[in-house]
């Protein structure tokens, strides 16, 4: 199976099914640092990324934004001094889709590749 980070998002229409419990069990271990939270009763993937300063956090936010634009799938982003909170869910279906796990993996890759060795 291809790693999630190498996949692309598939178009998702209103009424598409959310991921099943079995799919979550398959996909979530591939993005283990992400939590599944349910603000307002809507499941989403969420992770907080730490940075040494605001400029680094903002640069990461912009990289995630570029990935989101390329995939036409957009997260909630909260950029603060020293941290960025990223949330992925599919608005059209009010829950989690396979695309959200793909984008979480792409976000992890952007974080890893942008950090000094």
Could you explain how this protein is built, in words?
- The chain has helices at about 20-25, 55-70, 100-115, and strands at about 35, 45-50, 75-80, 85-90.
- With about 120 residues, the protein is of the alpha+beta class.
- A 4-stranded antiparallel sheet has the order 1-2-4-3, with helices on one face.
- Strand 1 (about 35) and strand 2 form a beta hairpin.
- The radius of gyration is 14 Å and the shape is globular.
Give a short summary of the structure.
With 117 residues, the chain is an alpha+beta fold. 35% of the residues lie in helices and 18% in strands. A hairpin with a 6-residue loop joins β1 and β2.
Key descriptive features of the protein:
117 residues; alpha+beta; four-stranded antiparallel sheet; 3 helices
List the helices and strands and how they pair.
Layout: H1 21-27, E1 35-37, E2 44-50, H2 54-71, E3 76-80, E4 83-88, H3 98-113
Helix pairs in contact: 2-3
Give the topology string: H per helix, E per strand: HEEHEEH
Fraction of residues in helices? Answer: 25-40%
Structural class: alpha+beta
Mean residue pLDDT: 92
Low-confidence stretches: none
- Count of runs of 4 or more consecutive helical residues: 3
Number of strands: 4
Instruction: Compute the CA-based radius of gyration.
Output: 14 Å
Beta-strand residue percentage: 15-25%
Distance between the termini: 28 Å
The major β-sheet equals: 4 strands, antiparallel
Shape, principal axes of CA atoms: globular
Q: Which strand order does the major sheet show?
A: 1-2-4-3
